[in-house]
């Protein structure tokens, strides 16, 4: 019963995000750059991060409407990171979510520029569409910049690339997971709480949740990379092993990876419960991952 | 006499910018990304845009100190655009300002990431270091995003790349100059005026100045590309002609290009004079370009 209502609510939020993402980016001259941005924004995906931002805002009794531009801005940042990560000079991926990657569908130069464009489109959207106070907007953009830059995904990606074909410590792997993956979840969840004007304690606890969830999600992603087919994954499977990327599964083995995901997911549920944060969506997302590694 | 004091004042501003750029970007773990950002930020250049931002703020009796973070943020954006423009998939340049380009000194993936990192480092700097009201910071970041994205340099670059090996109209050339070049000068000059809380009329007139100056500067740059040696230019000369890029000189010839620069520079001086904007620096920058095409 709860599962059904989770799926229904999730779909409502996902549809809002996808409709708004499409609406926020019209096609103007020069068409190619807008088409390229929209191509990757509309390429599907679970929309986990924007949905978590909306849900946290709702859970803390914030204005749902006012959180939509920020939620979409976070999805734009996520999309930017995927476009640039897929480039030939980075992970060199031809497929993403079952479609050609941006540089394959357009060109390498357009893909670089589409990523760059999304990095400034997103904060501009927060400023122009949020209807929030200047102080809150400033705080949101600061968090956005932290996640987007050297205090976030950029440093995660640099260390990840640098770790290829190397034996790395579990501390370095933790660093990659935290910076490359968890920082975006932290942004999403903190942004929702900032818009809802949550208490310092609430924000701290939610940040803890996001960090643990980010680690769980990355290990889960590594497991999928190892056990899935191209159709299931939407991108080339086994790539991590082929490029000798250090992953949790390659260091600790598949069974330990699954156990670790279950452990981290249980911690996520505990944080929510201990703080009386009753959200069907957050609990549902965590359960989804937990079930899939069973 | 005025020329000497221009040179002296210019050097004072340039030294402030270079000292602060170095200070604002420390080297931390993971070192490579910080080193790569600093490499391009410290690679020299005239620092025209940040100097113009500081000077406009000073001219309109604004707080010079408070404009420094924004001026440096604008130089970071300019540097980002150069790092990405130099990439093999774009202009494919090996040299910039007499030094190896970022992707040659580091790697292509690091250069992409260093550019990305600067795009969020810059607005974060404005937020954290400016000591300005949240409203002014929001306005500055909005202008920053306009210049950085599809309403600015990105669209200029897309149309520029798309115009290679093509015969383009003078309207398209104007578009490239306005978006690829003028938009950053408009940002610099508007930012200075916003920080000084200039009047709407002052901001409008300064925007006009910046737009005309941006066109003059780009045509002047095209002329240099045609007539300079590698040593004078610090990058490969004649590249525009070799890649069949449409430039003002290739469409209208060298003499017409020189005349156009002189005409635009005269317009710049007129705007300053008509608005009683008495700035040795702004006048000096315009005169410098005018003299060099004589």
List keywords for this structure.
mainly alpha, Farnesyl Diphosphate Synthase, homodimer, globular, 294 residues, 75% helix, 15 helices, 2 strands, two-stranded antiparallel ribbon
Question: What does the model show?
Answer:
Two copies of one chain form a homodimer. With 294 residues, chain A is mainly α. Chain A has a single domain, classed as Orthogonal Bundle (Farnesyl Diphosphate Synthase). Chain A contains 15 helices and two strands. Chain A has helices at 2-24, 31-41, 48-59, 64-85, 102-105, 108-129, 134-148, 153-162, 170-195, 200-227, 230-233, 239-242, 248-252, 254-274, 280-292; strands at residues 95-96, 99-100. Chain A starts with a helix and ends with a helix. The mean pLDDT of chain A is 94. Chains A and B meet through helix 2, helix 6, helix 7 and helix 8 of A and helix 2, helix 6, helix 7 and helix 8 of B.
CATH topology of chain A: Farnesyl Diphosphate Synthase
The chain-level mean pLDDT of chain A equals 94
Our estimate of the beta-strand percent of chain A is: under 5%
Identify the CATH class of chain A: Mainly Alpha
Strand order of the largest sheet of chain A: 1-2
Mass-distribution shape of chain A: globular
